[in-house]
Structure formats: structure tokens, C-alpha cells
């Protein structure tokens, strides 16, 4: 048997990944990280850590010997660090809120669609039940049939009794 040549450019085979020098990244990774960071900023643990950090900074730079102090009284460097932290925290918190708002919007749409399907199903079942009740009203019941047969037998017996 002759071997057939396989055409790797045909649609039967997936393309091989091209190698590139650009780094690959997950676009959602930064968003997930920002959500974790924003969640941490909203905890008591963060407040305790920041309070301890600021207290340590102030105590060290107030009570340490002059040659070991690195940020003197107005604590300009501490102010700079806190401003820097705040300038990065605010956009990260906004990013996390936007992602949460997107998830809430999608969840709301899914809930609305599910509710519409439930309403449609309930209306269908209501119509079916109404049609069954209507159809059942037209069906001869056993009691009705029994009473009709009893009446018919009574009439026949009465006619036979009158003839005899």
C-alpha cells in the first residue's frame, strides 16, 4: 500500500500554536487579583495592619536615636507612602466594583430569563389544566352512567309492568 501524504493545512487538523516572543497572559488575572486586594482592603485585618504599621513608623521616627530616624517629624515619607497606597487602592477598588456590577448584571439577566420561562410554563400549565377541566366536564362519569342506566332499567320495567 502506498502511504498518503497528510496535508497539515487542511481543516481536519488544528493549527499548531505559533511561537512568539510576546508573553502570554490571562486578561482576567489582573481583575481577579484586584478583587482579592479590594476584598482585603475592606477587612478589619487590613485596618489592624495599617494601624500597626503607622504606629510603628511614628514611634520609631519619634523615639529612635537621631542617626536611626529616617523620616523626621512631619513624616513626609509616610505621607507619601500612604498617598501612593491610596492612589493605587482607589482604582483597584473601582475595578473590583465594576467586575462585581458586571456579574450582578449578568446574574440579573439570567434570573429575569428564568423567571420569564417559569411564568410561561405556569401559564401553559394553567391553560392545560383549564382545558382538562373543560374536557372532564364533557366526559361521562361512572355515577352519571349508573344513574342513567338505572333510570332506563326503571322505565323498561315500568313499561313491562304496564303491558302485563
Description:
It contains 4 helices and no strands. The protein has one domain. The protein has helices at residues 29-41, 44-63, 76-138, 142-163. The longest helix is centred in the middle third of the chain and has 63 residues, at 76-138. It is elongated and about 140 Å long.
Compact summary:
The chain contains 4 helices and no strands. By secondary structure, it is mainly α.
Which helices and strands, and how do they pair?
Blueprint lengths: L28 H13 L2 H20 L12 H63 L3 H22 L1
Helix pairs in contact: 1-3
Provide the residue-averaged pLDDT.
88
> Whole-number radius of gyration?
41 Å
Low-confidence parts, pLDDT < 50 over ≥5 residues? Answer: none
Q: Give the strand content.
A: under 5%
How many strands, what sense, and barrel or not for the largest sheet? Answer: none
Order of helices and strands: HHHH
Question: Could you list some keywords that capture this structure?
Answer:
164 residues; mainly alpha; 4 helices; elongated
Amino acid at each position: 500500500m502506498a502511504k498518503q501524504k497528510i496535508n497539515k493545512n487542511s481543516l481536519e487538523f488544528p493549527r499548531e500554536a505559533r511561537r512568539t516572543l510576546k508573553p502570554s497572559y490571562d486578561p482576567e488575572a489582573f481583575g481577579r487579583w484586584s478583587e482579592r486586594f479590594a476584598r482585603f482592603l475592606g477587612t478589619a485585618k487590613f485596618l489592624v495592619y495599617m494601624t500597626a504599621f503607622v504606629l510603628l513608623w511614628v514611634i520609631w521616627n519619634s523615639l529612635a536615636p537621631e542617626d536611626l530616624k529616617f523620616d523626621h517629624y512631619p513624616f513626609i515619607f509616610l505621607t507619601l507612602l500612604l498617598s501612593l497606597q491610596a492612589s493605587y487602592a482607589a482604582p483597584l477598588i473601582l475595578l473590583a466594583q465594576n467586575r462585581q456590577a458586571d456579574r450582578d448584571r449578568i446574574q440579573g439577566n439570567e434570573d429575569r430569563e428564568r423567571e420569564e420561562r417559569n411564568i410561561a410554563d405556569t401559564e401553559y400549565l394553567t391553560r392545560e389544566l383549564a382545558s382538562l377541566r373543560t374536557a372532564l366536564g364533557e366526559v361521562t362519569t361512572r355515577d352519571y352512567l349508573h344513574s342513567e342506566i338505572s333510570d332506563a332499567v326503571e322505565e323498561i320495567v315500568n313499561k313491562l309492568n304496564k303491558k302485563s
